[in-house]
Design the sequence.
């Protein structure tokens, strides 16, 4: 397997999903500190489960947005692994935790349910970057990314900052998942 996990439609049809997980990856996760292996397995499963229910604008949405939304849910569910860091990059759609933290900032700045609105907006039309982001938030994604990057203290270039307590579960994670 070339990746640690992936989700695909089943042989029945695209409505039935399969999640594939690399057991070799699981065996290499240290059991300590306490519950590290369990939390990583749950985090990967949360990420992959998001792919079962998220929309992709008929396959036209950027892959970084799709992966970032899955990692946003993983982050909000309290399963961010200790190696994740908020980082400033050249592009908002680096994917995974980079876009996940960006989406977390959007959720904080524009209100609870903002990422859910992003997912809903990807349901019935093709992705048009300018119309998509300005329609949802009144700004281009580049403007939103610039605003987000300005909140990352002490960074110049691509330096990273550790996120304190990022792997601690949120007490209200059930309410914060896709409703």
Sequence:
């Amino acid at each position: 397997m070339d990746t640690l996990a992936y989700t695909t439609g089943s042989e029945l049809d695209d409505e039935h999903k399969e999640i594939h997980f690399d057991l070799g990856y699981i065996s290499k996760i240290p059991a300590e500190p306490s519950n590290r292996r369990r939390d990583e397995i749950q985090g990967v499963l949360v990420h992959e489960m998001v792919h079962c229910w998220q929309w992709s604008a008929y396959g036209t949405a950027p892959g970084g947005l799709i992966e970032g939304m899955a990692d946003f849910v993983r982050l909000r569910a309290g399963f961010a692994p200790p190696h994740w860091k908020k980082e400033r990059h050249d592009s908002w759609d680096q994917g995974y935790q980079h876009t996940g933290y960006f989406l977390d900032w959007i959720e904080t700045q524009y209100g609870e349910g903002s990422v859910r609105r992003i997912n809903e907006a990807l349901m019935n039309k093709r992705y048009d970057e300018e119309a998509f982001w300005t329609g949802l938030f009144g700004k281009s994604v580049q403007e939103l990314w610039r605003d987000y990057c300005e909140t990352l203290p002490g960074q110049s270039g691509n330096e990273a900052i550790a996120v304190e307590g990022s792997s601690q579960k949120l007490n209200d994670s059930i309410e914060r998942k896709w409703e």
User: Anything to note?
Assistant: The longest helix spans residues 36-53. The beta strands are 5-9, 17-21, 85-87, 160-162. The radius of gyration is 16 Å.
